[in-house]
Design brief:
The chain has 126 residues and is an alpha/beta fold. The chain has 5 helices and 8 strands.
Length: 126
């Protein structure tokens, strides 16, 4: 078991999301509302308030096509109201986002695909 002081010392946990076209993916996330901070030429921190992930200039189709980010929010319908008008499927040639839908496991889930085909599940309770 990990020592409690080590757990207490964690400052962040940031998944590294793949990007087929790093600049295009960064623009996609900025369009949605993320703030970008360049860490290195091929690594950008994408942040929403206290929450962040690393956008990396790395791409393997099999990896990206199976990568899922799960964002648990208060109201997925409110997120849909912000995302739907962005017409991401036109602006970025991505799969069309799917409006929130009640899933069998009890969450209302909005599905969004980034330019590398990374799936975002934006979920809320009923």
């Amino acid at each position: 078991m990990l020592a409690p002081e080590l757990v207490a010392g964690i400052r962040s946990m940031r998944p590294a999301v793949p990007a087929k076209d790093h600049a295009e993916s960064r623009r996609f996330y900025e369009t949605i509302g993320f703030d970008a901070t360049v860490i290195a030429p091929t690594l950008v921190e994408m942040r929403l308030g206290p929450h962040a992930f690393l956008l990396q200039d790395f791409y393997v189709a099999e990896y990206a096509n199976n990568f899922v980010m799960h964002l648990f929010v208060e109201d997925s319908e409110a997120w849909w109201a912000q995302i739907a008008p962005l017409a991401l499927e036109t602006a970025f040639k991505v799969r069309p986002p799917r409006a929130p839908k009640l899933e069998p496991w009890g969450l209302k889930v909005l599905c969004l695909f980034d330019p590398s085909n990374v799936l975002w599940q934006i979920a809320s309770r009923l």
